[in-house]
Amino acid sequence: MPSIKDVQSPPIKTISSREVYRNPWTRVREDVIERENGTRGIYGVMDKDPACIVIPLEQTPEGDFLWLVRQYRYTVGDTFFELPQGGWETAEVDPEELARGELREETGLLVDRMTHLTDLWIAYGAMRQIHHVYLAEGLTHGETERDPEEQDMTVHRVPVSEFEAMLLDGRVMDNCTASAWGVYRVWRDRRDVVREA
Fold this sequence. Notes:
- Residues 47-189 form the Nudix hydrolase domain.
- The protein has helices spanning 95-107, 160-169, 175-196; strands at residues 12-22, 27-35, 40-47, 51-60, 63-73, 78-82, 85-87, 109-121, 127-128, 130-141, 154-159.
- By secondary structure, the chain is an alpha+beta fold.
- The strands form two sheets. Strands 4, 5, 6, 7, 8, 10 and 11 form a seven-stranded mixed β-sheet that branches.
- A hairpin with a 4-residue loop joins strand 1 (12-22) and strand 2.
- It is globular.
C-alpha cells in the first residue's frame, strides 16, 4: 500500500501535533502544518483504527443476491441500506479475522471463502482510517452479536439488480458501500477476462 514515505518531497510538512479529543472509537488531533510556499495553517485530522467492509455475495440458480444491513445513521439523521462494515477499535487486527467477525456480528452470516479485493482510505480529506474490502462467498446462517448502538439494525437479502438500483435512487447513500461495489465489479470483470483467455 502506498504511503507518505513513497512521496519524494511531501508538499505539506507537520510542524507540531496535539490531540484535542478522544473516545473509544475516535481520536481527533490538530496539526500545525507548513506548505511548500512557507505558509502555515491548521489541519484537523480524525484518527480511527482499521475497519473492513464485506460484500456478502450469494450466487444461486435464481440469480445473485447481496446481504445488506439497514440502520439509522445519527450524523445525517436518516436510515439507509449498506454493506456490513466496521472495526474493533484496535490498531492491531488481522484484516480477514476482522471482516469475518464484523459480518457474523452484524448479519449472523458465516463464511466459507473470503477474498481480499483491496484497501481504501475512508474520507481521507479529513480522516485517517483504512478500509479492508473483502468478498464473502459460501455463506451459512448463524447468530448475530451486535454492539449496543446497532440494536436497530436489520438484515436484508437483496437481488444484485435491485441493489444497483438502490445505489441510484437514494436507498444506499454510503460512499464506502458504493466504492466497495465498484471495486468488486472491476475485480470480477478482470477475473472473467482472464478466465476467457
